[in-house]
Amino acid sequence: MSILRELPAGELEIVKEALSEFPVKLGALAKKLGIKVFVATLPAGISGEIKASPNEEDTFIIRVNRHESRPRQRFTLAHEIGHFLLHKDKIGNGIVDDALYRSRLSNSLEYEANRFAADLLMPKAEIDKILDTAVGSDDALIETVCRKFGVSKQAAEIRLGL
């Protein structure tokens, strides 16, 4: 079962709307959720962070590392949106995720954010459609997933179970 289904109705509708086209427009989704997104120079080994805005009440800021690949930035952004939707009460002074998506949060909460990111970027129903019509090698299948969803080869392999 998709972790997306665990969202409150209003947020679920916003996410479902974002899933109407691929690759998902993560910046537009974040904006609809009231999150400001910045691509920034972060310390080496840090992929992204989310924190409450110091200047605007009820506004959150996500920063992703500009020095990582575009597919990696997309997964990081989806991961941080996952923290916002699933763990907002635990963000506190901020969550900084390293390159392995580890933070001060428990491994189970980081797993949930990763699962959310995978479900958002590569919904199972869409993956199943690709698998139902797949012909050729695993490499061709991986390339199809990467191209359609704007994800890395590693993310595609994990989602496909390869």
**Number of extended strands:** 4
Q: Which series of helices and strands comes N to C?
A: HHEEEHEHHHH
Mean pLDDT: 91
CA(first)-CA(last) distance: 20 Å
Task: Give the helix proportion (percent range).
Answer: 40-55%
What characteristic shape results from the CA principal axes? globular
Mind telling me the CATH class of the largest domain? Mainly Alpha
Q: How many domain modules?
A: 2
Rg, nearest Å: 15 Å
Give the number of helices.
Answer: 7
Strand portion: 5-15%
Which second-level CATH architecture of the largest domain applies? Answer: Orthogonal Bundle
Low-confidence stretches: none
Q: What class, by secondary structure content?
A: alpha+beta
Record the strand order, biggest sheet: 1-3-2-4
By CATH, the topology of the largest domain is Arc Repressor Mutant, subunit A
Describe the structure.
It is a single chain. The protein has two domains: 3-121, Arc Repressor Mutant, subunit A (Orthogonal Bundle); 123-162. The chain is built from seven helices and four strands. The chain has helices at residues 9-18, 26-32, 70-87, 107-121, 124-133, 138-149, 153-160; strands at 35-40, 46-52, 60-65, 95-98. A hairpin with a 7-residue loop joins strand 2 (46-52) and strand 3. Helix 3 crosses helix 4 (107-121). The chain is globular, with a radius of gyration of 15 Å. The two termini are 20 Å apart.
